[in-house]
Design a protein that fits this description.
By secondary structure, this protein is mainly alpha-helical. It has one domain (2-111). It contains five helices and no strands. The chain has helices at 2-15, 26-45, 51-61, 67-76, 92-109. Helix 3 (51-61) packs antiparallel against helix 4. The longest helix has 20 residues, at 26-45. The chain is globular and about 35 Å long. The protein starts with a helix and ends in an 8-residue tail after the last helix.
């Protein structure tokens, strides 16, 4: 799980401030937040749940500072089927806040990583 979140962060941060790609779109930004919610929910419960149940869990279980970002990411899902938001840039402030959220998710998972050697 930590490896997945770390890869997500690498790809996400690489697109902040760059020409339109994937993660710096409205769709990609919300996808990153929802992915973190699902990973953290799965880590906590040991089961893979739907995006919606993960969002509900995250809104109740994670620190209150993330609630607005999580609500925004869920709201961005409306209309995603038509592919419009994949061609629209996300606000830089949202991208920066999302990068902070991904770091938060890494920090939650980091103490639990398996030891090697």
């Amino acid at each position: 799980m930590l490896t997945s979140i770390s890869r997500l962060k690498t790809h996400f941060v690489a697109e902040v401030g760059k020409p339109l790609a994937y993660f710096n779109t409205r769709f990609g930004q919300s996808f990153a937040v929802l992915t973190c919610c699902r990973v953290l929910h799965g880590f906590q419960t040991g089961a893979v749940r739907s995006k919606r149940s993960s969002v509900l869990w995250a809104a109740e279980s994670l620190e209150a500072e993330w609630r607005e970002l999580i609500d925004q990411a869920w709201a961005e899902r409306k209309g995603a089927r038509f592919g419009v938001k994949i061609r629209q840039a996300a606000k830089v402030e949202l991208l920066q806040e999302t990068a902070r959220f991904i770091t938060y998710a890494q920090n939650v998972l980091r103490p639990h990583r398996p030891r090697t050697g």
